[in-house]
Specification:
Two copies of one chain form a homodimer. By secondary structure, the first copy, chain A, is mainly alpha-helical. Chain A is built from seven helices and two strands, in the order H-H-H-E-E-H-H-H-H. A two-stranded antiparallel ribbon of chain A has the order 1-2. In chain A, helix 1 packs across helix 3. Chains A and B meet through helix 1, helix 5, helix 6 and helix 7 of A and helix 1, helix 5, helix 6 and helix 7 of B. The structure holds a DNA duplex.
Chain lengths: 147, 147
Amino acid sequence: MIFSKSFGYALRGVLYVAIMTEEKQKIQLDEIAEKLTVPRYFLGKIMNKLVKEGILASEKGHKGGFSINDNTMQTSLLKLIKITGDNEMFDSCVLRLRKCNSKNPCPLHHEIETLRNQWHKLLAETTVNELMKKDQPDFIKSIATIA
Amino acid sequence: MIFSKSFGYALRGVLYVAIMTEEKQKIQLDEIAEKLTVPRYFLGKIMNKLVKEGILASEKGHKGGFSINDNTMQTSLLKLIKITGDNEMFDSCVLRLRKCNSKNPCPLHHEIETLRNQWHKLLAETTVNELMKKDQPDFIKSIATIA
DNA sequence: ATCTCAAAAGACATTCTTGTCTTTTATAGA
DNA sequence: TCTATAAAAGACAAGAATGTCTTTTGAGAT
């Protein structure tokens, strides 16, 4: 698979909070995990990472939960990818030949570089806000479906 | 990483055999693993898969080893990807929303579909033969370098 | 202060990929 | 037929990603 499960959970988690935040201020992990049909504790750790990275806010204790903050809506997919660890996707040679760079390119270097840049651009430009603006009819449903 | 280690090993293994086959008929696993700086037994299993899939020929025993066959040079990267198990890269939703298809697309479905199709095309059209025809000066070196 | 709630943190289990070692099988040559 | 050789096959180990459970921490409510 091109991206990790963690990335998918992170994205769907953020989106769920962003969508639900119109109805309530705080969204609990229990609800998120249940609605997204995602392993609760595992999601918890990912959400925690997002909080530490400043993508989301959280509060402990009574009436606690997750909520959006000033950064949430501007967060790019690329940022989520980096946070969840799928780095190096844009670093290393796709053919896995190590000695490959613009000076000493592998046979597919240039073709792949073009494609990779397009990916990079798309992922860097697509933010949580962008995704929500597209406003698909069943968007919330598609987020809530197991991946 | 976008592709698995196994894929990288498979590709480099095939390329090494294809290149060396001009000098000798049979290439031994020991040599391949050493030159590519790749775990010997692990590579052995991957080479074995390639043989079973008809991508390479092999012979046991004295004067045995790996060699190319009628299919080797026409083998596409896509084929290698499938053999080494990185399937579903072109199947499932990149955002990992399951209920995502052309009828019920996720917000990025169309943009991603375009990119994915380009990848698919490139990987399907690029064969072992194509790679070797490009004839980079240090191609054999770049194959032989650890990934 | 104490209780309850919910995230955070830490220990542990499972699964998948990758890597290693040993034994078996097949082939050529003496 | 026997020996050497090299791939194939099988058992096992290490590592990373994913998943589960328990304990701790922090905040509001009583």
